Amino acid sequence: MKFLKSLIFVVIGLFLQLTLAELFRIGDIAPDILLITLLLLALTEPLEYLLVLAALGGFALDIFNPTYIGVSVIAYTTGAFLIGNSRINLYSQTHFVFEAAVLFLSTLVVYAIFAVLIPGEGRFLVRLVDVPLGEAFYTTIFSIPFLLLAGRKRSYAA
Amino acid sequence: MAQRTKIFRKRLLLVYLVIILIAILLNSLEKGTKNKIASSCVSTVFYPFKSGWSMMRNFKNYREENLRLKRELASLRVVVDRLLKYEKENERLKKILNFKEKKGVSLLLGEIVGRGVPRYSGSAVVNVGTKDGVAKNLPAVVPEGLVGKVVYVNAKSSVVQFITDPGFRASVMDRRSRVVGILQPKRTGHLIMSNVPLTEDVQPGDEIVTSGLGGVFPKGLRVGYVVDVSAKPDRIFKNIEIAPFADAAGIEELFILLGSSEADSL
Fold first, then answer.
1. Which residues of chain A are within 8 Å of residue B29 when distances are taken between CB atoms?
2. Is the ipTM of this complex over 0.90?
3. Number of domains in chain B
4. What is the model's pTM?
5. Which of A39, A43, A64, B131 is the most buried (most CB within 10 A)?
6. What is the b/e burial string over A118-142, where b = at least 16 CB atoms within 10 angstroms of the residue's CB?
7. Which residues of A touch B (CB under 8 A)?
8. Is residue B246 part of a domain?
9. B51 in a domain, yes or no?
């Protein structure tokens, strides 16, 4: 039941990722709402769930671009793994700044994976830094209101 | 506590590695297989969302379509009403044409353009006049029988007094027994055949036609049939009630009988 609730939460996150995030797009950069959703889930849900949900969310995004099927699964599961591990080590601080920092790093890694696994135009190193940094920064800024709102609901279930 | 955290981390890492392995396997599949997986996922998992979303998007279209169809329905109703009117008119005109051809007499078709002319309450204005050959006292007929006579003529119009007008009189006779009487209207819409002596033979159901006497109507124009015959011993005439064949109130066209003074064939 708990997993189903989390799954619904991820589905809503995905829906917002495909609709709302596009409204906030600036050039190549749009906030990654799926990652924000995973971070919020990490505050209350078991971490194994988090990984499975990240994989499912990634897969859902992958089926829109079957050529690179599996890439989003790898990226988002890695992002969720980082968030989960950080929670074990850092979340005892219980301050949203730490959560924002974790989200920043996770987004950076997720988009770096995309840059590595999906061929694109321009120099590889620029691609590796440019978009991931922008995404990480924008997603973190975008997530702050949600993290503040979620502040009272932290339970850190293992 | 540290031991528990270590186990938990290992478990987490295991789940992560399994997922990554599956993802790599997925990524290494052939392009066709990848497309097949993606399309089957889209059709099964996303179909409810897709149909819900398209339903929401189509809602506005449905409303507009509904309005458009309502407008179309309203205009089609008008068209249908018009067609029904034409159908009735067509039937009526066919009947008239058939009547004209069958009788082979000189008939002039006139359309009723007005009713209730002062002085003649049971009368109508028709759109034919002296220019068309209409003259005063010519009989007006419809396929069912006599309907009236011309009482006033203009160049392009004329007034027809119906047989139901209180001032209408005509000489009629029983087609079976050849008994002659005077036709005059009754308030009920029926007619009376007066001046028929008690001894004369007139029975209910007998057909009444014009007698040709008086010089206005040719002989033999159908007028109506007897519905009631009563005879009071203290009177010298029979009281004969006739139902007219033609309903003057319902007609829209009539014929002016131009060329026959002897219409026994009618």
1. 69
2. no
3. 2
4. 0.48
5. A39
6. eeeeeeeeebeebbbbbbbebbbeb
7. 15, 47-48, 51-52, 55, 58-60, 62-64, 66-71, 73-74, 77-78, 81, 84-85, 88, 117, 158
8. yes
9. no
> B125 and B198 share a domain?
yes
Judge contact between B165 and B122, C-beta under 8 A: yes
Return the DSSP state at B143.
T
What's the rounded Cα separation, in Å, for the pair B266 and B218? 10
Cβ neighbours for A84, distance < 8 A, ≥ 6 positions apart:
A42, A47, A50, A51, B12
Structure tokens at B85: 């009117």
Phi, psi angle pair for B73, to nearest 5°: -60, -45
CATH of the domain at B180: 2.40.10.340
Q: How many CB pairs under 8 A join A and B?
A: 75
Residues of A in contact with B5 (CB under 8 A): 88
Q: Which domain holds residue B162?
A: 107-257
Q: Sort out which chain A residues have CB atoms less than 8 A from B37's CB and list them.
A: 63, 66, 69
* Nearest Cα to Cα of residue B153 among B184, B110, B122: B110
Which chain A positions have a beta carbon within 8 Å of B28's beta carbon?
70
Check: CB of residue B203 under 8 Å from CB of residue B193.
Answer: no
Does A66 contact B24 at a Cβ distance shorter than 8 Å?
no
Residue B8, pLDDT above cutoff 80:
no
Q: Measured between CB atoms, which of A48, A60, A62 is closest to B12?
A: A48
Residue B12 CB contacts under 8 Å (≥ 6 apart), including other chains: A47, A48, A51, A81, A84, A85
Element (H, E) at A150: none
B257 has a pLDDT exceeding 50: yes
Domains of chain A: 2-153 (1.10.1760)
